[in-house]
Amino acid sequence: MRRQTNSKLEIYLPNPINGEATTKADLDNYVERLAQAIMKAVHETTPRKRPSPHSKRWWTEELTNRRREANHLRNIFRRTNHAADKAAWRAKANEYTEGIAQAKTSKWREYVNNADRKTIYQIKKYVTNIPTPTFIPTLNDHEATNEQKVTALRKAFFPKPPPADLKDIPTAEYPQEVPYEAQITLRQIREAVNRLALDKAPGPDEISNRVLKNTLPVTENHLRALMQASLRLGYYPKPFKHTTTVVLRKPSRPDYTKVKAYRPIALENTLGKVMESVITETISYLSETHELLPLHHYGGRPGRSAEDAMMILSESVHKAWKEKKVYTAIFMDVAGAFNNVHHRRLIHNLRKRRIPHAIVAWIASFL
Q1: Cα dist. 286→90, 98, 289 in Å?
Q2: Beta strands in 143-208 (DSSP E)
Q3: Three-class SS of residue 50?
Q4: pLDDT tens digits for range 231-288
Q5: How would you classify the pairing of strands 244-249 and 262-267?
Q6: Which tens digit of pLDDT belongs to each residue from 191-212?
Q7: Residues sharing a CB contact under 8 Å with residue 161, sequence separation 6 or more, in sequence order
Q8: Which of 126, 243, 304, 328 has the fewest CB within 10 Å, making it most exposed?
């Protein structure tokens, strides 16, 4: 099936865009044609999965046979109405019920025994989370219709950012940016695609990460040309800015009639996520190579983790104790930190950190 999809793609894909002679409108058009070609090839070669709503992972062929036998004996009893036939039917029905319980237990134990670093957290959710209904109840005591709920959730998820003091930006002087050659390589594209998790939900274009990985040998030159043109123009294509927002319940909240008990998940187009990954890795490389971040900055840096930060904190506390001193630490949790980032301030900070202009312009367009 992969070969069939790639064969179709070779027919439907447009020619790679010319990164040196491209306008923003050309880039938007190319993105749409590229996504349409991939989806057309997938639809023609990959049938849609139609899972039964009654399917269970613990179901076995033996249970099917037991159910069939129990139904057969039940039909006999209905025809004869004899006590012996009823007893035979009930015995087989009880055997079928016990088989279901045993199958569930066996499958659960198998799932737990084969847990890995990812599924172990899913097991924790199964054990600790209380089953809750999937619909959203009336919010704030009066938001009952779907339209009212959407309005209430939108206001909670996307509030207007507070005013920011930007008086220092117009007169700011920026240091020399670090050296950077704005060239996208196939290696960057391959690494970005290979980092994608296979079973993540796709965005509005319905192109899954699995499709991107399977078709990469055919599309990698097109993706590189797309990323190169986007970086040269300092422009994030408009089709990638369309997302699907899914509302999820925050776990273990006491009252799900309050909007603060929910959080949004934005499902982005996967082609755009590849571009974001390339830029992220580029910024990370430049930051580490040219030492653009403070020594004790741990968030989002390769080779550093929360464990390292806690180890440094622990060592600092014990050092102070040995010197008969008191160690004081301040922990801050900024509510809505990412949602309330001021775009001009962010761009200003990037330039202060000597991030190259090509990347800063691309991020400004992304925002």
Answers
A1: 72, 62, 5
A2: none
A3: coil
A4: 999 999 999 999 998 898 887 788 888 888 898 888 999 999 999 999 999 999 999 9
A5: antiparallel
A6: 999 998 888 888 888 888 998 9
A7: 339, 340, 341, 342
A8: 328
